[in-house]
Structure formats: C-alpha cells, structure tokens
Description:
binds magnesium ion, disordered C terminus, 11 helices, binds adenosine-5'-triphosphate, four-stranded antiparallel sheet, Rossmann fold, alpha/beta
Amino acid sequence: MISIRNLKKSYGSNHVLHGIDLDVRAGEFVVMLGLSGAGKSTLLRCMNGLVKPDSGSLTVGGIDICRKHSRRELAQQAAMVFQHHNLVPRLSVRKNVLTGRLGQLGTLASIAQFFRASDLQLADACLQRVGLLHKADARTDALSGGQMQRVGIARALAQSPKVILADEPVASLDPKTATSVLQYLREATRELGIAVVCNLHQVEYAREFGDRVVGLSQGRMVFDGGPDELDDAALQAIYHQPTEAAVSSMHAAEQGGRWLKPLAATAGAM
Ligand SMILES: Nc1ncnc2c1ncn2[C@@H]1O[C@H](COP(=O)(O)OP(=O)(O)OP(=O)(O)O)[C@@H](O)[C@H]1O
Ligand SMILES: [Mg+2]
C-alpha cells in the first residue's frame, strides 16, 4: 500500500531523512518511534504530499506521491490524524466529519458544502465506528479531548483513504483515554483494510497496538520488526545518544505538558 525507496529530505544543511526504505501492507498498523527531531513527522508529511522529498520514490496505493496531484487525488490516498485533531469547535460533530469529504467533492460543491445523501450516510457510519453516532448533532467543543480525537479519526475515515497517517494522535490524552482512542483507530482501520502509520512517543503503546514497529534515529531507520522484538537492544538503537537538539526538544515538550513519561523512563533505564 505504501512503498518508499531511498527517500531523502534536507532543510538547508539539516539532513532530516537519509535514505528511508519502507513498505507497508494494506491493513497493517505500523507504529513509528524515535526521539524528538528524528524525522518522524517529516516522513509522514512526505507520505501525505505535504513535504516534497529531495530524492527517492514514494508511492501510496500505486500513485507516485512525489508528482503533482490534485487535492482530490491526494485525499483519496492518505488522511491525516493530528495531535490537536484540528476540528472546527463551533461546528457539529457530523459537519466536522463531513469536512473529510470536501477533498472528494468538485470545486463548486466543495465551496457550497453540498453533500450528497451518500456522504451523510458515510459520515454517520464513520461516527458509528468510533462509537460517537449519538453525538452527531452535538457541538464539537462540547466533547472531551478523547471524544474529539475519535471525531478526528472519523473524519479521516470519511475520506475513504487507503492509508491513515497519525502524528502523535494520543500525546495530549491521559493513558486510559489514549488506549481507547488507539483501540478505535486499530479496529476501524483493520476492518476496512486501511494501512496506518502512527507516530508515538510511548513504547508500551507500540508494543500493544503495533502490528509492526519502525524506529527512526537521526533520519535513519534503525529498527523494523514485530512489537515482540522491541527489546533493550532495539530501544538502545532507537533512543541512544540523543543529540543536544533532541534533548532540548524533549525538555521543551515536557515543559509544554506533553506526556513523555514512558519515553523518559525508557531513556532513564539505559
Ligand atoms: N518546515 C521545516 N523547516 C525547517 N526544518 C524543519 C521543518 N520541519 C522539520 N524540520 C526539522 O527537521 C528535523 C526533524 O523534524 P520532525 O518534525 O520530522 O521530527 P519528529 O521526529 O517528528 O520530532 P517530534 O517527536 O518532536 O515531533 C528537525 O531538526 C526539525 O527542526
Ligand atoms: Mg513530530
């Protein structure tokens, strides 16, 4: 479903991705681990067409993402789930999910927000999948953080994408809520055969939810294996010798209240 070969990306003299090779199958749930600054978000954004790599190849569902594509073509391939879900607070839950369909509508229908009955049915089916159909008419800002992230997942599902790219989707949630959100994401995507690449900072979630775990360190893939293979040696390869920039970025994240305890505990154990 996703095929990446020798992908490289630099920002000026900062070489962020050093030749990534990765294949992800339909329905596979891949967790990506790595220190802050390892290049996880950059890799996800390359898969979504938001960042243009310098060289290498990247196809999603057989489509070359590095070529120029319409918004509609990209939306049919990959949907994003963000840490802060990026929902419109004053809109109803259903309307937020329907925005996942906007990319698939023609320009005029999109401007007029003219949704077909089939779009409405799909939006409700996606809400059902994340257990929130009963909240369809509620204002989104009346939901809890975990519920909002489930709406973010429903919106991504409503795009009918081949892959979902989730960038730290549970970083702002407490452990119980985070587990429930990841469960919804895994079940829905597995049943629909959607491939998932999910950036996380929590090793124990990678073990619990990943069909497969990849580890990035300073823009290189240093681990690719099953969750049961994520042993001390693998964690050493992924998290060892954090760069000064990564340490200060982790520190900044902690100051910002991000939930990094398991990562800190892992680093401390080494
Ligand atoms: N738009 C950009 N312009 C310049 N540099 C960038 C840009 N986006 C990312 N970078 C740099 O690329 C490197 C990798 O950043 P990236 O966001 O991919 O890391 P990450 O693994 O997602 O980290 P985190 O866990 O903190 O989210 C960092 O050094 C970052 O400063
Ligand atoms: Mg990131």
